[in-house]
Amino acid sequence: MFIWLTIVTALRILRRNRLRAGLTLLGIVIGVAAVIAMVSIGEGAKQAVQKQIASIGTNVIMIWPSATRVGGVRGAQGSAVTLTVADAMELKKKVPLLTETGWSIKNVTQIVHGNRNCNSPVYGVSTSYLHIRDWRLSSGGPFTQTDMDSAALVAILGQTVVNEIFEPGEEPLGALIRINNVPLRVIGVLSPKGQSLYGSDQDDVVVIPFSTAERKVLGTMFLGSVGGVYVSTGRVEDLQEATEEIRQVMRARHRIKGEEPDDFTIRTQVEIGMVQEETSETLTVMLMVIACVSLLVGGIGIMNILLVSVTERTREIGIRMAVGAKRVHIMMQFLIEAMTLGVVGGLIGIACGILAARLTTIIAGWPTIISTDAVVVAFIFSVVVGLFFGLYPANKAARLNPIEALRYE
Amino acid sequence: MNSLIACKDLWKVYRVGDVEVQALRGLSLSIDQGEFVAIMGSSGSGKSTLMNILGCLDQPSRGHYWLNGIDTGSLRPDQLAEIRNQQIGFVFQNFNLIPRASALENTQLPLFYRGLSVREQRALAAAALERVGLHGREGHSPTQLSGGQQQRVAIARALVATPSLLLADEPTGNLDTQSSREIMDILSALNQDGMTVILVTHESDVAAFASREIMIKDGQIQSDRATKGHVHATEG
Lengths: 409, 236
Known about the structure:
The complex is a heterodimer. Chain A is an alpha+beta fold. Chain A has helices at residues 2-16, 18-56, 85-94, 129-132, 145-150, 159-165, 210-217, 239-253, 269-312, 314-322, 327-364, 372-398, 402-407, and strands at residues 60-65, 69-70, 73-74, 98-113, 116-125, 137-140, 154-157, 176-179, 182-190, 206-209, 228-233, 264-268. In chain A, strands 4-5-10-7-9-8 form a six-stranded mixed barrel. Helix content of chain B is 33%, strand content 28%. Chain B is globular. The relative contact order of chain B is 0.19.
C-alpha cells in the first residue's frame, strides 16, 4: 500500500520536472540502449559466423600446399604442387581418427551454355568431397564411383552458375555445358550456401569428378597433385589431436626434418571461426565498457538530481516527519524515486536499444539478434544503478533533523 | 501520573559556536487532559523550544517529559515519529502544507503514514476538512486557498489522526483579524469537544481564548494562572 502510493507520488514528482528528469535519464537511457544494441549486433555476428562454419562442416580439417619459395620470392598460398592424392591416401591409412578423406583441384575457367557464359571456379573432387564439405544437392544426384573411375563427363552446378548460364525457368538437369571446350552433362544442382566467411559467393562453383578434371578438363602439372585435402573427424573434440597427427604424417612423408617449416598448411573451420568470434567479442567487450561507463554517469546523474531534490524539499521532509513519517518512510520515498528513474530510464533505453539494433540491420545490413538476456540484465542493471545511487541522497533525507527541516527556507 | 503532560526539570542547552545557549532552564509543568493552555513569552524566551519538546520533535538535554505516562526521553527517533503520528497534531504559524498536494492529500498525510487504506484515508480526511468548514475545497492546492483556509487545512491535518494533544505554534501569526478569529473559534470548538490544546502566542487577545495562561521568560515559567475563556467559558 505504502509502496504503491509512494511510487505514484514519485511518478507525479518526476512528471512535474519533466525536462530535469529527462536529462537525468539520458545517461541511463544511453547506457541501456548501448548494452542492448551491442549485444544484439554481437549475437547476430556470432550466429552468422556459426552458421557459416556449419555450412562448411565444423569437424573439417583442410590441408593446403604451402607457398613456393624461390630464393626470397614467396608465391601465393597453394602455388606449390607438393600435395598429392597419395598424401591423402596415406593420411586415411595412418590417422585412424579421420572418418572421411577427400581432395580437390581447382581452376577458374569459362563455362558456356548456349549463348551464355561465365567465369567460375571449377573443382575436380573426390567422391567423399561433397559430403565432407556438407554440400547438398537441391536436385539431381551425386557422382557415382563409376563416374569417378571412368572420368565421366558430368558436372554439378552451384546455384549462382545456374542463374548465370541458364535462362530463367530453364531446366539445367540433363543440359550440356562446355568447360574449356569439353562438353559435360549437368547431373545435379547444389543447394545454396550463401556467402563464405570471407564474403565470397560459395554458390559460384562447378563441381566435376576429380579424374575428369585431371585428365580431360583442367589438366594438371603432374598426375596426382591436388589443390587441397579435406578430411573430417567423427567428433569436433578430436580435431586438435587429428591435426597434430596429420602434421606428423605429412612431415614424415615429405621428409621435413627438425626445424624446417611445413610445406603445407593445416586449417580447421573452428579456428577460422574463432578469429572472427574473437574480433566480434573484442568489439562487444569494448562497447560493454562504454555502456557501463554510461550507466555509471547516469547513476551519478540520478544521485545529483536526488540531492537537489532533497535540498529543495527539505521543508516537505520536515512536514512529513512532523506528522509521523519514520526514517524508513522518508528513505523509501527517495529510493523509490531513484528506482523509478532507473526503471523509466531502463525502459526507454530498451526501446532505443532495440530500435538501434533494427536500424543497424536495415541500414548497414548487419544481422542482429535481440537477446532477451541482455534486455533483462540491462533492465535489472538500470534499476540497481538507480537504487545504488539513490541510497546516499535517501539516507541524507532520512537523517534530517525535523526541526531544522521545518525551519528550512 | 494522571496528567496528560508532565515535565520535570527540563533543560535544553544549545551550542552556537563557542557560546552556550540555555533555552530551557529547569522548567517543570503539568497539563491535564482537556485543558486549553496559552504559552506566552517574548521571542527568545524558550517557548518554541518547549513546544518542540512537547511535540516530540526535539528532546531535552536534561530532565523528563512524560506524555500519557510515557517517558519520551528513552524513545528512539522512530518511536517519537510514531507518537507524533498517533498522539500529536501540529498547527504551525506558516501552515507548513505540502505545496503541490491538494487540501485532501495534505490532510491525508498522517493517515498515510499510519498505513490506512486509501479509501479510509480519503473518508477521514474529507470529514476533517468538513469539520473546519472546507467542504468542497478538497481538490484545491494550498496556492489556491487563502491564508485562513490554508491554516484550516493544517488544523484538519492535525485533527484527522484524532490526537490527544493539539499543538499550535502562533497559528494566527500570519493571518488577518477576521481569519484569526475563525481559527481561534475552531480551536475553541475542538477544545470544547475534549481535545487538549496548547497554543503558543504573543498576542494577548489570542491567548484570551485559552483557560490557562503560562508566561515563560528566560527558559523558566514566570507565571501560570487560570483565565476565564474569552469566548467559550470553561469550568476553570
